[in-house]
Amino acid sequence: MTTVGEALVKALEAQGVDTVFGIPGVHTVELYRGLAGSGIRHVTPRHEQGAGFMADGYARVSGRPGVAFVITGPGLMNTITPMAQARADSIPMLVISGVNRRDTLGKGLGHLHEMPDQLGVASLVALSAERVMTAEDLAPVLDRVWSGFAAERPGPRQVEVPLDVMPLDGSPITSSPVIESVLPPAADIARAAAALADATAPLILAGGGARFADAALKTLANRIDAPVVQTVNARGLMHGDPLSVPASPSLEAVRRLIEQADVVLAVGTEFGPTDYDMYGRGGAPWPKHLIRIEVDPEQMARHPVDLPLRGRSGPVLDALLSQLPAAEVQKNGATRAEATRKAARAELDPAMTAQLEILEALRDAVPGAIMVGDSTQVIYAGNLYYDHDRPAGWFNAATGYGALGFSIPAAIGAAFACPDVAILCLCGDGGAQFTLPELMTAVDEKLPIRFLVWNNRAYGEIASSMEAAGVEVVGCHPTPPDFEHVARACGMPFRRVAMKTGAVVGALLDLQPAAGPAMIEITMPN
């Protein structure tokens, strides 16, 4: 007999899932029955929040849904924060949980891990939340999940299986989801191509939705000679290209560039305030004429658009290229981009400029590395201005939902998605303390991650915000642990250096390569 739990694992394997992150419990034992004989690798974090952030990091660099297995009740609740971060950043994540027996649900009988309405809680955050009530429900539920991942806006999805359903006889799933391709009408593609070709000062705004469409994006940008402004989740798409503007649209220089463009093509970007109006200047700088590529019709309807092109970035960009003249034109794009880069970088204060120089030195010292960040000052600097050297290689939780504790587990997830790529985890002493136990997951798995901890012994950004508002600073100086002792307890190499470019890069190179993780503490003024 094949149980529902076993059939579920086989269905995941059939969809190409190769790694799951989870902590087993009594409510998911039957789910784990099928793992041992599968080709799926199981990774054990130290907390379900870590499982969710690992799934997020895996998805960001692979482009495939990250999968987490969690127990009923507290396990699912501990994963809600990572699900919210994934929803804010449009990251595909599948959370599979247990739930209590069907005849007890919603009755408040005092069963282990019981919640009044677990599915209702999950549905407030996940793009979809479904319960498998019978063995026959499993196949259609999973079909809807994978269809959603393929055709709709990426984000977290949740499936829960009751304790008494997991061991039922569940025949192997042979069906496949019916996936409808979404492409704009040919007439709209032709209109958009004509508008871009005729523009005198075209501009492209690239967001996280363009993360895996870098080749088409570069080709189109050079075809129409348009500068490309990249939000945080799009950094690395245009590295070194004369048309690249790797700077936040919240900066005045970038806002001017947008306002001066006569036609703007927005590719996979939601126009959220953390990217476009971080300083509260009255909203995003709105283009004169906007063509927007967006897969989600609800997102498309939130802002006025002159020409909406519904679909995923890659296929729509390819369709536009097929309608544009093959010859590249000159519209002063490189000059506009260069002027904006210089002006945007000049807006950074001296402290941020020093942090940016360290980021650039790290990038050059370890080419092609993936940098995963938390909400910390060096990341804030990089989010305002930084040109990474690979697509999907710069990401953090300092935009959108903004959850602390993201970087350590997300870096671990990224390491499983790209095992042959160097991973640099950049976190502050405050954020690191949210998920320090996950360091041992990296040790168990012998992951060659370099954990760089910027230590100013404070929630420095919050303290500065309190001071600027005339509020007495309270609660912003939790004592950090001795990170050297933390590293020693985890059995990993350690270096402590001052926040100077040569010292930081020297420590990093001194610890490269190695068979497992290592930690560098960077002491900062506070």
Automatic annotation (TrEMBL):
SUPFAM superfamilies: DHS-like NAD/FAD-binding domain, Thiamin diphosphate-binding fold (THDP-binding). One of its GO terms (molecular function) is 5-guanidino-2-oxopentanoate decarboxylase activity. Residues 3-119 form the Thiamine pyrophosphate enzyme N-terminal TPP-binding domain. Pfam families: TPP_enzyme_C, TPP_enzyme_M, TPP_enzyme_N. This is 5-guanidino-2-oxopentanoate decarboxylase. Belongs to the TPP enzyme family. Its cofactor is thiamine diphosphate. InterPro entries: DHS-like_NAD/FAD-binding_dom, THDP-binding, Thiamin_PyroP_enz_cen_dom, Thiamin_PyroP_enz_TPP-bd_dom, TPP-bd_CS, TPP_enz, TPP_enzyme_TPP-bd. It is an enzyme of class 4 (lyase). Its EC number is 4.1.1.75. It comes from Albidovulum litorale. It comes from the Bacteria. Residues 189-320 form the Thiamine pyrophosphate enzyme central domain. Keywords: Lyase, Thiamine pyrophosphate, Transferase. Residues 382-522 form the Thiamine pyrophosphate enzyme TPP-binding domain.
